[in-house]
Amino acid sequence: MSKILPAPWLSLFLLVFWLLLQNSVSFGLIILGAVFAVLIPLYTHRARDFSIRVRKPLILVQYAVLLLIDIIISNFNIAAVILTPRRKIKPALFEYPLDITGEVPITMLASTISLTPGTISAELGRDGRSLLIHALNVHDVEAVKRQIKERYERRLQEIFQC
Fold it and tell me: Transmembrane region positions (predicted)?
């Protein structure tokens, strides 16, 4: 049974969440939700192999709130760039040196960068010590690097002590 349903509580949560998102209950939606609730934990089981030890959970909450605020502000900034046709954009592709170590903290930083509109983590360096980042509108690459270091990477170092 554990091979088919490796995380029963997660599967139950996914099924309930799916039905809440649909805002209705029908036989077809229950079947489709059940299929997703079984397949998603099966597909993502390898992610549970990584042990995550959060050393400072309050800073993690602060990080999540900061990220949410940055996502909202970035949405407005990108909307301004798109809606202002005469405004010149300066895209940039740059390498960001990493101070953090560990697969989970680096993944969180790369995901944070990609979640913020206007930036995306394109590639992790072969040595695992840098990220290739594309930004839609950058006037000063060094300022963007400092901002990432201060706002995100420093906090991740505190959260995971890496």
Answer: 12-40, 60-83
